[in-house]
Structure to design on (1636 residues):
């Protein structure tokens, strides 16, 4: 039999340890910041939390063992990241937050040995933070990567980068950037992007502003950035020139899934908070949790969470098999982002007036979660990609039939 | 022909004047407070805006003419309140925000001549603000009014009120309170509430805290309050003793509808912001607004807004006919609150990353709107009431059939 | 005050008489055909029912008074058609079924005096049935009218029509057809359709088959038709040559609304059947109708029905004012068609196993209703039209701003 | 690593063989019955098809090897049943239709050796059909099993059964029944049901009628049955006396999942039919499948199918581990039944007018599918069970906390 959905003992132990760590240490910390979650307490708190996570043996489960991590594959990351995701501060504590976690993943796969020493090692250890500079304000690269406008031009011994980016998560305070810039072709054409590694801060990197997003708890903000003739030496080209779009895919599929894992923790937490609430409170002479309309919301949460997790398991397994898993990751991301939104919304509704107050974490978790249906590809773009592949397959089949029938169409 | 849905000329002119007032004066003001909407700029700004609204001839359209208002009925209030509601600051400027607007409505209907002079006149004129103290923290009166615990006991020449309230909108800084307290019966029994008028501040009224809700733009907060032996003289009993629950209904139906009017303005504004955005921005070589999935969202917004407005028109007409309109107001409130939520959510989604930033007002409008599905009766309570009436009617019919058939069931 | 939603006394009396007629006479008749609704009992039963409807003074409320009808406008038709629509046989009995009702409407507006005598008079009286031959199988005119392929070419004293149609409701047994054929331009170009009146049967009109649709209860089927050199004399051109697309709009808006009226009757009936069921039956020791999840379905039905009716009232009023009402009719049709589907589905679900049996009419009503989201324009086409207008308005405004700013875009 | 979602080679081969069998042999057969699917062609066709399935080596994959099956566990059944389920006739051909498949499963687990020889052997071989007589008309056992009214009373050497059942699938023509009857306790009390094996036909078993359900393609109907003093000897008691409710659970979880498997085949087929349609047809100058609103429906189908399959895989795995899997099977059944309904509905909508005709199988598949949200427990009952467990867990935790805190609640 080949269907097997159990985790090995060491993974289960890491999950349990992470749950304890979050419940006993991180959530109480998070509570201290109710009212202002901005930057999740900042870098000092980050360093403190990461020290504790190292001591607990749960730090950086995704990082290669030789860089201090647990070397877990996607399937095994899932339950650990979910456990860590329960607190908005958890991913920072475990060093599994965006964008660092995705950058660790990508550097592990693409970076040269020297680059690994210089960039991956300190990042995996939590000694620095990082940024991934791809998204651009309109009319540049957003949901449509081929619109990329930032450019790198050849210069002596390296490249000169100019461009305008925004939504660069964690940029403020990052120790280095991975920058996506066009090295050939024109905006609108696909071919010709390259990834560059650039230590920061650097006078050629201007942090224009923190974009004022509805989610606040990320460290280092979502920044608007300008590159002014930023010089990058040849040895800091990540992978091959002009292969940037392909590498972005290497990063994006798994990064999408780790978002799904972390936000699953948030959604589960919200559900539990709400169930606990309705299991305590009465109205109309009955426990709220025994009323049919509340039960309906509870059950729909249960179903949404189970389906999200099942799709996540499937997509991770495909990625672990080395597949591109474009469909599986788009499906899991789109479904989960929407399901979590529903879960958060129902959880608030279940708690009535209390649900929209700071007395419970629900309203602020909802704010943090809202952008997930847009970040990493809006649901509409994923749906479009899924449909294109499905309809494209049908077109191909019809074309083949027509060919066989000798009828040119 | 008796179906007629046009507004008289004077109403249409008030609407147009309100639209200009909001666009030219209030929205630019609101923009100055991006980043911190708390209390909508405070009482000084309120007074300034109300002066301008008076000058524009659009102040207090709902207040009786003899108290400086326009004397509009519910049907005519609808388009004016919608126009005023486009800005979060608009209702304050026009003196049509909660809870003052509902209190003006109720005092006009129930207060004695003396009470009108003392309380209604300054409230209608914007000289003071007011509060309506009904909701209590669990296990008190929330969605279930009969759970009322605050009590008023007889004392020499009046009443002594003790109790614990929360979500008392506008309480901080209010010039007087309308307080709902139990004067007979026990929590869980329906009969026996009375409304009291109490000037504020008063040492017997303790403002425990501003409850930290997700909506920030109300003036005077949503407060937690304790009454400590608050004395209210007999002449400040509003209406009859023990008739409070009935009066609450007088207030609640119309108040529900004016919420629906004001939030309709917000939803229309959000929709227009998003449509403007997709009519400017391109992706994948096409204008966003020409893409099918975006068109679907645009159309669903259009439908949701039209249906909300149509249900509002119907409910207002029923109220103007003097009907209780329990079904009609529950239907309009429930549908609209959920429809507006969908409209806001889609509008954000249509704008992609920009939608979750402060660069557009959408994300903060969504936050302000979220509680509307809970305040003034959660959707679930309205659905329950609607179903109870529908099933109750069927039960009665079945019972009558059985009676006729001579069969005891 | 100009908002008025009451019906005049004579209309209310017609509604009440129609309700009695349906309950006492038509529904028992319908019950005799459970198991095979095909053609609603056929033309003999139609004639019999129409006789009774004439006697009851409720026949053809939409037809001009001079042709034996009640001369009601759209607003007044609404409640009568709803009452008649409760039974699948009701519209046939009242002579207000598709396509005859829409044809009466169009002929009243467009036909010449002679055409009225020859075609409208017997149709309004129920002496003949009619067909409206517009829709074509792919790649002809379907949701996209401009794809029209059937052609009429000039010949001596008239026109010769060739073409292929389907979904021609009521064609089998119709006394005449109104045929839409291209008189200029090419498929894909909008201009150049003409409407023709053609007595039937005629050897040049071939009824290829009854298309096997999921709805069965229409009289005369949904037919596939071929015209083989069908000759139509000049005097049978309806209105002006090449004005067919414009006339189609005259017919389509109101026809859409009368569909919404009739199906509202079906949806209300289904809801009442289901509420009656849950008000009688117990499970888990409780009356079904007192269970929260059932109450939720009841309430959602109530809301969906109210919103559909409110949008219908609005659209009818706009049509009665002589407006094109493209938005209002698209909104009402799209919302109602989807709302009724939800109502039917919930009603079945409320009745559990019994809901999917012939013991209740719900499952067969659902089958009859399903196509309504596709007929008269699929929801997607209406949404597209709504979005196009909304985004188009924004584009125009932006263009005007740009013009004012002196910037060519 | 313990997450593994691949099927062993023999299973994959069985799946492929089943797909070929259905495409090449069964679907063309099904097409011959368009217009009247009743009883799927009857028993003669069943025998013929089963002969072919045996020859193809795909017969009875769920039956024990010693009884001629393939002995597959739940996980391995899933893809085979899905492949077989694509045609309404497929499950009959493979002998994996309800109720026989579930009865084989239950007899394999509970029957005595002698009972296996007498009942399981011929059933597994397709020599007879069977019925499972549990559901009763109101006020008997429906969604609430404890309402069981049919009774078995002790008599010489056995039991005498009286009772009234309905929705007894396949009863007409069944070679034996498994009958659930009360052997102790009262309707409304849980304890005390027993399962009995009864050869059929038998004069004491009256088939009152075929209940006229919207789904037609089952063989042997959904029958209303009365037992009149039916004698069952002791050796035909299935398992232990008074353990019937427990055994029902043994049957119901897996039976629910095999429904999910088979209907998944139907949903996938419908989706493919619709995608093929939109990949061929143009409107408004574009291929339907390239229009955004159609792409949205395609993508939502893809997501719904993937999530249904993922939840199914999870539930089957739990069952294979020997767990009760009450949550997992309720989640998978509820989600899938609703998701398939959405898939069918969207598939019809994608095909426009053609979608509601017999020219495509969609409308009739939708009819067959509709009851699945009710049969085997309506969605509402599953949601209620899920919520009860979730809230119950929270209550228990709160109680434990209170205990620890020394506070009696």
């Amino acid at each position: 039999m080949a269907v097997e959905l159990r985790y090995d003992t060491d993974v289960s132990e890491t999950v349990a340890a992470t749950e304890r760590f979050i419940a006993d240490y991180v959530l109480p910390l998070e509570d201290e910041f109710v009212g202002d979650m901005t930057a999740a307490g900042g870098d000092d708190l980050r360093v403190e939390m990461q020290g504790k996570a190292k001591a607990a043996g749960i730090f950086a489960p995704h990082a290669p063992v030789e860089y201090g991590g647990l070397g877990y594959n996607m399937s095994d990351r899932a339950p650990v990241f979910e456990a860590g995701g329960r607190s908005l501060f958890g991913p920072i504590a475990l060093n599994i937050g965006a964008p660092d976690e995705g950058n660790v993943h990508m550097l592990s796969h693409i970076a040269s040995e020297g680059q690994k020493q210089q960039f991956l090692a300190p990042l995996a250890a939590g000694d620095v933070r990082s940024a991934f500079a791809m998204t651009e304000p309109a009319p540049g690269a957003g949901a449509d990567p081929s619109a990329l406008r930032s450019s790198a031009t050849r210069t002596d011994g390296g490249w000169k980068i100019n461009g305008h980016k925004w939504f660069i998560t964690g940029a403020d305070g990052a120790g280095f950037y991975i920058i996506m810039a066009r090295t050939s072709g024109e905006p609108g054409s696909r071919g010709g992007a390259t990834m560059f590694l650039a230590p920061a801060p650097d006078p050629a990197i201007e942090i224009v502003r923190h974009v004022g997003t509805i989610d606040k708890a990320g460290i280092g903000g979502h920044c608007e950035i300008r590159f002014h003739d930023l010089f990058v030496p040849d040895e800091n080209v990540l992978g091959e020139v002009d292969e940037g779009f392909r590498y972005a895919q290497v990063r994006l599929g798994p990064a999408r899934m780790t978002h799904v894992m972390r936000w699953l923790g948030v959604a589960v937490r919200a559900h539990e908070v709400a169930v606990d609430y309705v299991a305590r409170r009465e109205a109309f002479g009955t426990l709220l949790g025994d009323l049919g309309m509340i039960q309906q919301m509870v059950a729909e949460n249960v179903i949404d969470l189970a389906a999200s997790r099942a799709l996540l398991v499937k997509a991770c397994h495909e990625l672990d098999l080395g597949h591109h898993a474009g469909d599986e990751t788009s499906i899991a991301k789109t479904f989960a982002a929407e399901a979590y939104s529903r879960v958060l919304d129902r959880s608030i509704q279940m708690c009535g007036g209390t649900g929209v107050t700071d007395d419970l974490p629900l309203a602020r978790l909802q704010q943090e979660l809202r952008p997930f249906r847009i970040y990493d590809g809006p649901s509409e773009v994923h749906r479009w990609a899924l449909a294109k592949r499905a309809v494209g397959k049908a077109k191909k089949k019809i074309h083949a039939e027509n060919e066989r029938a000798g009828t040119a169409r």
